[in-house]
Amino acid sequence: RLQENRERLSVCSKLCYAVGGAPYQITGCALGFFLQIYLLDVAQLDPFYASIILFVGRAWDAITDPMVGFFISKTSWTRFGRLMPWIIFSTPFAVISYFLIWFVPDISRGQVMWYLVFYCIFQTLVTCFHVPYSALTMFISREQSERDSATAYRMTVEVLGTVLGTAIQGQIVGKVVPPCIESRLFIGKTNSSVAMEELNMTHDTGSLTDTRNAYMIAAGVIGGLYILCAVILSVGVREKRESSELQSDEPVSFFQGLKLVMNHGAYIKLIAGFLFTSLAFMLLEGNFALFCTYTLGFRNEFQNILLAIMLSATLTIPLWQWFLTRFGKKTAVYVGISSAIPFLIMVAVLDSNLIVTYIVAVAAGISVAAAFLLPWSMLPDVIDDFKLQHPDSHGHEAIFFSFYVFFTKFTSGVSLGISTLSLDFAGYQTRGCSQPSEVNFTLKMLVSAVPVGLILLGLLLFKLYPIDEEKRRKNKKALQDLR
Description:
mainly alpha
């Protein structure tokens, strides 16, 4: 009992820890929802090149996770800890590179390389922040209940971060009406080339510059929040060496650790299940702005619809935290993630209707909350199970977290690249006021049929996950006996 009290974390510590999750979510949400439409309609890149930037950026982001995990496992302890120096030193450079992603360079050639380079640099630096931050869960307390509680705080703040990312980016950018060009059909009917030229000029000069400035203002605000959150985390959280029982100063063998981790059945099954469910929500996120703008026709409403999704997700995180403690984590996965399916079907099948779209957005948010909370709540259970099977092997926490993130990011890169490429094949018109019916059909598939299929596949794979509530309780007792 005394041991448990000593391991209890104060509310202040949990809040400071939780705030550290916001930068990754704020920037990730802004990039996830808005980068595709920004590259196509503001930077005016060809959809083919936009798909390359999105794929290579995400794929590089995925590769950096295990790389950073490797370097962390080789890092010696300092007086700030082993993980905290990574978080502190990566922050200023991450903020600079993030801002430059949202800047349109005044160069006729090399724009594609500009976005590709700064997107990859930012992804590397934000990984140097997020992988050590994720592994920090195992270094703040030995008590499973305290870690679960801190994870719930973190998830609430992270979803708040997605709300902030959506709100800041959406509301600032949404204040400016993005310029668009009438379709080729309209151009064909316009005999006067002078009239057409004038139309393009009026669309181009004022409003396009205003739109570009709005994106830069949003990037500046988000960069400031990133720095503030990093300061709060580094000041308010103490990394406890004994929490992960690292009794040796010698860095562990990364490849030996990786082999052990990848042979751990529970981990592979957890990753397999969440890989497909995460992919479903990432496809939805990546294409939703275009879907709202063109297929549903809510050009001036899409940022508010995105905000409704994220607010709903934030408010239901405590509900899912209560649900998983009451009914178990596996049950929460089935109920929470499958609840999105009828609403994803509804938004594609029903005619464009703003009220219905908002109802679907709120319902989807409830499911997004479950998809957010559960992987991070279940990974520590897998690590505890691993520790029982390998009691002499320490320091592999970063490998568990970094490879989970690696698999989800790599597949999301592939899916975003393919989805943007499929829009190109369907005949997407850059900055068009409307899109051909083939593009609208493709967008419906990308936000409805494909995510539903992925969710069902993920839930089927989840049947194989071995750690239910009974197993979790046995593991907890066995670990307490070991200590």
